[in-house]
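Researcher: We're teaching a course module on how sequence relates to structure. For the next exercise, students receive a sequence and then see the predicted structure as tokens, so they can try to spot secondary structure elements on their own. Here is the exercise chain.
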Amino acid sequence: MRRLPGGGPASRAGVKVGDRVLAVDGVPIGTLEDFYRRVWDSVRPGERVGLEVRREASTLEVEVEAADPHALLRLDHLSR
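Model: And here is the predicted structure for the students to work with:
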């Protein structure tokens, strides 16, 4: 992860900047596009999703509560 919104689902689950997500619910991912496609196409907001995360030399399993993608993508500066 290069950036994480403060207070977002991944941050709350303990994912940190610099972590690399290797799999979503056991399905390997290779790109950021793969990550979003897997999460947003298969998980509803509020559901839990398992992430396999590489942090330095360790591999971690974390569970994240999926958020509404529309809320995450909202551009507040456009509504001003």
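Model: If you want an answer key for the exercise: The chain has three helices and four strands. The mean pLDDT is 81.
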